[in-house]
Amino acid sequence: MNSLKIIFDRDTWQEIFGSIQKNKVRTIITVIGVLWGIFIYIALSGAAKGLDNGFERQFENVAMNSMFVWAQRTSIPYEGFKTGRNPQLKIQDVQALRNNIPAIQFIAPRNAKGVFDGSGGSQMVRGSKSGTYSIYGDFPEYTKIATKKIYDGGRFVNQADIDEERKVCVIGERTQKELFDEDEQPVGQYIRVDDIYFQVIGVHKYIEGGGFESDGDVFIPFSTYKKLYNTGDNVDWFTIAAFDDADVIAVEEQVKQTLKRIHRVSPKDERAFGSFNLGEIFGRIMGFSQGMTFLSLIVGIATIIAGVIGIGNILLISVKERTKELGIRRALGATPAEVRIQIILESVFLTFVAGVFGIILGAFVLSGIDAATANMTDFPYTNPTVPISFVLGALAIMITLGTLIGLIPAQRAVSIKPIDALREE
Amino acid sequence: MGSSSLHVLKGIDFAVEKGELVAIMGSSGSGKSTLLNILGMLDVLDEGSYTLDDVLIKDLDETKAAKYRNKFLGFVFQSFNLINYKTAAENVSLPLYYQGVGRKERQEQAIKYLTMVGLADWSTHLPSELSGGQKQRVAIARAMASRPKVLLADEPTGALDTKTSYEVMDLIQKINQEGNTILVVTHEEDIAKMCKRVVKLKDGVIVEDVKVNQVLAADYV
User: Fold this and answer.
1) Across B142-164, average pLDDT
2) Mean pLDDT over residues B148-163, rounded?
3) What's the pLDDT tens digit per position in B168-201?
């Protein structure tokens, strides 16, 4: 009999089941060892993946290689200026930045009232209803960097709005709730912002996580904002997205250096311009979750190995107990190869069954966690899955280990001469 | 096993013809079990030669020995040596499994040999559900299932009471009458007398080798 035929032979399996069934309790406990290992592996790597997805979701509305840059206060005297000067970002800086830094893909200057200035925002009135909301002056480019989901029937600020300085606004979900009746369609309606009437062109869906924006924010064209609040060429901050393949940290540094040059700030002045580099933060978080994935891989595989060693151990004891039985089999004509293959197959079979059950159990637990955390939007945990390659890889590792570990008891089984095996009482 | 060698058999020269029923007798330490183990290819000889059915048995590795055992020999042991988690029929069909016989054929053969030893109704029973005599009969059925050239029985009645012993010997005699060659190791005179030839061993040499008038076990049953 060649080995392939043995593996696919129904009788072989009957022999294996026979000897496995002989000691059910022990078999089950052994299987639990490996089952636990693969369960830990699946649950951990699924959880790590869930965390990974969760972080990604937190950042999904912002380009991952984006940054914010704003002006602060100088800390080094330069070109005759004293320290403590406040450089002012200008709309002209955009062109300079674009010209100097080819890695910039999008740049969106923004102005805002009620965000960093402590004013609380603008008073908005509609009929008898009113509220105070943050208001932003925006370019359409902004949506290229930070996705703004606009409800059906509406749109974000576009270039024509900018060019014609239109009095249009995009309002938030909360703004809609507070200024409009429930069954009212806000798009096309007018609201009064600081005594000027604006037509609502869209309602944006608020996505939690990341940044300072809220569900009450109102966006108007940058040019309209300029006129409304008399901001001239001033810009509060730039939102910049680098190309996907660019090094965001380097771009951030180039942006700051360019701004320092334009605004006559010492190149060594670290405090004149502030920035928040999402790309860098994101990279760190992704690094962390990759670390988690790696850790779960290591822990999981180590647990699997421990489980498989347990199987080897149990089979070794089992072989010792079955010395006589194996002796009988050999007296009846079982060749050493047949005995060996039987023991190895027992090992592989136990490992495999345990593995499959562990995977099923792990999947159940993961889907349970998923269901439990589905509504917790603040908790960075989404869609915990294990890539099929991980699962198949784990199974392959288990079968390999099961075979290798099975070799030890198998060798033990045939190392005893039949005559000695039979003598054993 | 041991590192110090002990010469158990010191020159055994005998031949068994086809169809013989030979009792090998001797006190413990006389070498009778060693002789049987060599004949059974469970042990190897240091010197001399062993020819079975015109085949010179030598240079046996484990695989070769296993094949010869499977093809030429049937074993019956004092302690029955049935596999305790297998039914009577499964035990009987085990040597056929190692011969590569198909499942259906194996089952048929198992039932056939169990019928021969009068245990057809017990085919689905586990050894733990059988009496000593029944176990030994299952063991004999198992030994015969592979149609061996020689049946080697090592103290087949050693663990049985007198009445059951005679029943087992009756079965062995019947199998012998069908032309099978059987060697029985025993130290009981009455069992030896039920064979056709008695070989007595002492300290590793044959001290007596006589044909006897067979006592039929059936007379005592």
Assistant:
1) 90
2) 90
3) 999 999 999 999 999 999 888 889 999 999 999 8
B166 is a domain residue: yes
B99 contacts A332? CB cut-off 8 A:
no
Give the amino acid at B220. Y
Nearest CA among B33, B35, B27 for reference residue B10: B35
Residue A1 at interface with chain B, using a CB cutoff of 8 Å: yes
Give pairs for A91-95: CB < 8 Å, separation 24+: A91/A233, A91/A234, A91/A235, A92/A233, A93/A235, A93/A238, A93/A258, A93/A259, A93/A262, A94/A235, A94/A238
A356 to chain B, closest Cα gap in Å: 27
pTM over 0.90: no
Contact check, Cβ <8 Å, A417/B142: no
| pLDDT tens per residue, range A187-239 | 999 999 888 999 999 998 877 655 667 788 899 999 999 999 999 999 999 99
Look at residue B70 and tell me if it is in a domain.
yes
Residue in B81, B109, B151 to test binding to A, most A beta-carbons within 10 Å: B81
Nearest CA in chain B to A418: B42
Give kind and range of the element (H or E) at residue A40: helix A24-58
Q: What's the domain range around B56?
A: 21-82+149-219
A83-109 burial, b at 16+ Cβ within 10 Å, e below that, comes to eebebebbbebbeebeeebebbbbbbb
Dihedral sign, Cα of residue A176, residue A178, residue A184, residue A187: negative
B residues 48-67 closer than 8 Å to A (CB)? 62-63, 66-67
CATH number, position B170: 3.40.50.300
Answer yes or no: do A333 and B95 touch at CB < 8 A.
yes
Does residue B4 lie in a domain region?
no
Q: How far apart are CA B66 and CA B60, in angstroms?
A: 9
Q: What is the residue-wise DSSP string for B124-144?
A: T--GGGS-HHHHHHHHHHHHH
The verdict on residue B128 lying in a domain is no
ipTM score: 0.88
Q: Which residues from A are below 8 Å from B103, CB to CB?
A: 10-11
CA distance B59 to chain A (A): 16
In chain B, what residues touch A21 (CB-CB under 8 Å)? 85
Q: Pick A419's closest partner by Cβ from B37, B63, B84.
A: B37
Which B residues 98-127 touch A at CB under 8 Å?
98-100, 103
Find out whether A241 and A125 touch, Cβ atoms under 8 Å. no
Q: How many CB pairs under 8 A join A and B?
A: 71
Domain count, chain B: 1
